[in-house]
Amino acid sequence: MSIVLDLGGLGPADLVAGPSALSELMASLHVLAEPEHHPESTGWTARAAAAGPALHDELSVFAPLWARYRCRLFFPRTVPLATSLDEELAAIAALTAEDFLDLVAPGVLGTNTQLVPPARELRAGTVAAEDYARRCLRRSYARGELARQLVAAPLELRDRLLAVLRAADTAFFAEDWRTLRTPLEDHAREVRRRLAALPVGVPPAGETPLSLRSPADVLAALLPTAARVGPGERVRLDKLQIDEVKVAPRPLVLVPSARVWPHLTVKNEYPSCVVVQYAVRGATPAEQLTLRDLHHRLMALTSPARMELCRHLLGEPITTSELAARLGSSEPQVSRALRTLRDAGLVRSTRDGKLVRHRLATDVIQRLGRDVLATVAR
Asked: Which residues lie below 8 Å from residue 25, measured CB to CB, with a gap of 6+?
């Protein structure tokens, strides 16, 4: 399962990289709303919650907008990118009722498996509006109530949301952003450097290319779980979703984040630019596994024989012959089991003179539960 971005027709200038204070605030609010998804942020969550206890009720009202399906309102819609949170909030304040409805209504419903009527049909009392509110209510009471308020008075809800976002900024985000902004801007500057330095043609013999070969190469190298996929300029993003997005003629905006991990968010609503919000390296607690790698690790542990092997490998490094003697198996059988575990990253083998000793990768085993959560949540 994956989302494939087709970058065909895009040049380096069509890819824009830069942090967004509003997107980072949204990611931070998601962590506060769903801390069980982000055990690595326990300390930050406690500090942020303590800084704004009076915000709790209002944040709960709007929590559907930054749940698993992120509301399009919180991502860049045009380029060039805004330079501050104040500028991004001012753009929201300038939205008409119809534009606000179009951006927010899908976020309140919170799924891309059901179509949301256009804003012109979501007028209070219409059949379309009542059906939309019922569908939101079936998902949760909070979504149903938020949908009712959105349809009844979109501009009032807009202003109430802006007040909540500004209060969150005052309570904890402004101080947080002062720390996060510079490294995110440095990261984005490096991405832009790579894009600007894309070579034309093949470098002369003996020379090292200054950059990767194309925007698709830059994107595949930027995201730990992304990969080129042929034919053409296509990049596969490892997610438990299936979609193919033709980016051109719109720009692609890359938004680095320090709070979004383990999620990787792709927003593709027309006519806005396509946005990918991703965790920068260094803001993730461990390597990010692909779905295939996770599958291999879990499957390697489904065999009772391999699990018994793991028990022996836990205490001390052991040779293949000693393992075979302990288990009453042949050395070829043990070698095959070890190869499966080693290929999955669960066993490490080291040479000791003429002998090769094997030991369980306990750090990998300890991370496995977190890896499952991170891969599913991505």
From this structure: 74, 85, 165, 168, 169, 173, 177
